[in-house]
Amino acid sequence: xxxxxxxxxxxxxxxxxxxxxxxxxxxxxxxxxxxxxxxxxxxxxxxxxxxxxxxxxxxxxxxxxxxxxxxxxxxxxxxxxxxxxxxxxxxxxxxxxxxxxxxxxxxxxxxxxxxxxxxxxxxxxxxxxxxxxxxxxxxxxxxxxxxxxxxxxxxxxxxxxxxxxxxxxxxxxxxxxxxxxxxxxxxxxxxxxxxxxxxxxxxxxxxxxxxxxxxxxxxxxxxxxxxxxxxxxxxxxxxxxxxxxxxxxx
Length: 250
Hints:
The protein has 11 helices and 7 strands. It has 250 residues and is an alpha/beta fold. The chain has one domain: Rossmann fold (3-Layer(aba) Sandwich). The chain has a 7-stranded mixed β-sheet with strand order 1-3-2-4-5-6-7, with helices on both faces. Helix 4 runs antiparallel to helix 7 and helix 5 packs antiparallel against helix 6. The protein is globular and about 45 Å long.
């Protein structure tokens, strides 16, 4: 499950989003590994990690992360960081074993993924339809265009399409079904340690729930990247690493 293990020092864990793998963090890892041990993982069912047998929720993926840390001999984390679905997994992992996590960072994610609006329900329907009928590669191509629509962004789109095209339908749907049943809003407000939330101006996730969360979590630092969309770790690795490094100083 650990796909990249680089550097020495306090441990930072990086978790990718739905349909992705550790490669999303490829350019962030060396920037953090100058003075930290950085572990980028592949969630079950993605990359080189076997799928879970019967996942029923995001908690199963969070527990898999902790099992991996146990096998790696990692007792505590300086920070756990997650992008998109990985943000949900990072939050869940931190809430399940808070004594092992000093800081939490979430990028392009939400405090709950239960569909609330018509747009939410359409997003879930569209993903299920695409992956079942047209296949993972077509879904990955559309997702890459949504993240990086500029014609000049071919270099960013190509690896997203390549990685997504290797996904398997079953594990993808298992992860999607786990995600749409997840809601941590009531529990997350009990988190009292440093929390960094990185958002994008043109993400396809709504900004309002994140802003509402900030009102009840005074220790939460919120940064919104103007002009960016859903792919912050790939589009702005230097800026993302700088924000995480600032969090690690708290």
